[in-house]
Amino acid sequence: MAARVVSPSKKLLKSLCNGKFFSTRPLNSSSPSSSISINLTTEKPEQQPPIDLHQPTNTASLNLHDVEKLFSSVTTTKLLRASANLQMAAMEPMVDFGMWVMNSKLMDIQVFKEIVLGFVKHTFYEHFCAGEDALATGDTVRRLHNGGAGLRAMLDYAVEYAGDNQSCDRNLEAFLRTVEIAKSLPPSSVSFVIVKISAICPLKLLERVSDLLRWQHKNPSFNLAWKMDTLPILSDISPTYHTLKEPEPLTLEEEHDLKLGHQRLLKICQNCLGSNVPLTIDAEHTSVQPAIDYLTYSSAIMYNKDDNILVYGTIQAYLKDAKERLLQAYQAADEMGVPVGIKLVRGAYMSSERKLASSLGFESPIHNSIQETHTCYNDCASFMLNKIANGPGALVLATHNTESGRIAVGQAHDLGIGKVNQKLEFAQLYGMSDALSFGLRNAGFQVSKYMPFGPVEIVMSYLLRRAEENRGLLSTSTLDRQLMRNELKRRLKAAIF
């Protein structure tokens, strides 16, 4: 099929990037009705001014000082376990040792492996994962939604990369079962099903397709006969060092495998449509992201209709080209009459991205400072909030940064985006930033927890990657731990007196 890509005009993009279409509120300052200045980072920790958690805030929108109200749905046992697990996860030497053990040959010794996996299962796994099977996962989702917390679940079968079609077919069945799990649970308790494209399309093929898409971006006359209708994938500042010479065309076998990968994605989309559960495609490394965006946008063009947005793509704000790619894709979709669903994250591959770029002798695609990442995230959030307030589209703000949450809440209020609005969802990882999740919930917004699940052996790769990439986030969980300790002290005093 001949590909059709609608590209927004350069004049419009310049206006967008210069801030013409963004909120007029300064993104790094609070609104008149807000005064929270707490900040949780997802990258290298930065120095923060001391915060008196005992002083009430001046906002009724995002209140993090009332620990009794924040943790009212959490049992004391759960609070104690969560506090202990976060304390261990924040100790980098322990994380380093754990990663060394899991990657060592000691894991080839069955008895040793069973002991280690048993410890992991009853600590980090239970804290960060929903369960090993459909029954356990369903129970966790119900407790989260109906047990007083009122939070929703983004279900992620936490399989990592696939190397061949046999593995892809196995993963496809697992994702289809995930859709069935979501369908079987109480209405509105599951907000999304999550899919990684690298689990249903061989990783090497995604790298090949990304090379070809990058080369076509450099040379628009470069023909890709297999390419379907899509949205703009790369911008003029996107990293292209992965593809320094013209790649060979896909072989007939590779074209066939790409078609199979797309068919797997469409089958998941169709099942999600039948189950009335939206689908979010996770972002991955820049080496394969062009192919992931290509498949995501092609599917979105087919399935996103009017106010029914089925397929959501993911933008990683720690990338220097994130804002420009978002603007291009949104504008092109708008011209095509296709509503866009976006999950906005900061990013989860910072270490590996910087290492790859450095090894090739190129500048990192990651912003040079944490503040630049914060600014990019807030700018992208502002752009999308303005768009969904006045037209089609939907937004998932996945953040552990309290300042970004506060800014978004203030802007949503200013724009008249109603609380419990299907166009706006906040999200955090399961087991992380619970205070922010509960605060946003108490403010009346829809909040989801990103919940990986699956057998311990399969999920270990996910947990190891999260431990490696989220060192900064885990070590800056100080706020959550302090709030939990405050609530535990309050409960102890109440029990005594």
TrEMBL record:
Superkingdom as given in the UniProt entry: Eukaryota
Keywords tagged on the record: FAD, Flavoprotein, Oxidoreductase, Proline metabolism
Domain Proline dehydrogenase stretches: 141-475
Entries under Pfam families matching the protein: Pro_dh
Homology family: Belongs to the proline oxidase family.
PANTHER family: PROLINE DEHYDROGENASE 1, MITOCHONDRIAL, PROLINE OXIDASE
Identification of the protein by name: Proline dehydrogenase
Organism the protein comes from: Lithocarpus litseifolius
Lineage: Eukaryota, Viridiplantae, Streptophyta, Embryophyta, Tracheophyta
